[in-house]
Amino acid sequence: MTSTTRKLEVLEVPGVAHGVTPIPMAVKIGNCIMTSGIEPVDLETGKLGATPERQAEWTFAHMKTILTQGGATLDNVAMVTVYLQLPEYYVHFERKWLETFPDPHNRPACRIFVTPEPPSLFVQVQMIAVL
After folding, report:
1. Is residue 3 part of a domain?
2. Cα 80 to Cα 99: distance, rounded to the nearest angstrom
3. Does any domain span residue 57?
4. Quick one: pLDDT band at residue 17, thresholds 50, 70, 90?
5. Cβ pair 92, 123 in contact under 8 A
């Protein structure tokens, strides 16, 4: 059996981290970009966005930063997984989703989960993009 070395490139959003958890925000391997949970950190304060609306805005902004770092665009996004703290936060996600992907025939697949933990995280996404 022959061993191969993975050519993995770590992609980060400057000013955004997973706290003390030692995991990257995203990785690019081959022609794929895959993210961990994209933290909706407000780059002006260094803290999570204060409202569900602000967290949705920062999540999509950071998603674009990751794509740019990986040499991709929104057109390369194949799948988005969304985590909402409460079902009523969907309206904030949907507003940014429709703004980001206005063409109903050119949107990535999407799966939405409602999860109450952690309490300060209102909106978070994971993404898969294929170049």
Report:
1. no
2. 15
3. yes
4. confident
5. yes
Q: Residue ranges of the alpha helices (H) in 70-124?
A: 90-100
Which is nearest to 66 in space by CA: 106, 20, 27, 110? 27
Residue 1 lies in a domain: no
Query: Which of 25-29, 92-96, 117-121 shows the lowest per-residue confidence on average (mean pLDDT)?
Result: 117-121
Query: What pLDDT sits at residue 3?
Result: 54
Q: What phi and psi, each to the nearest 5 degrees, are found at residue 124?
A: -145, 150
- Candidates 83, 75, 74; CA nearest to 112 is 83
CATH number of the domain residue 126 falls in = 3.30.1330.40
CA distance 70 to 84: 26
> Which residues touch 123 (CB under 8 Å, ≥6 apart)?
40, 52, 55, 56, 59, 82, 83, 84, 85, 89, 92, 93
pTM, two decimal places = 0.92
Q: Which two tokens mark 125? A: 């996404």
Beta-carbon-side half-sphere exposure of residue 122 (alpha carbons within 13 Å) = 20
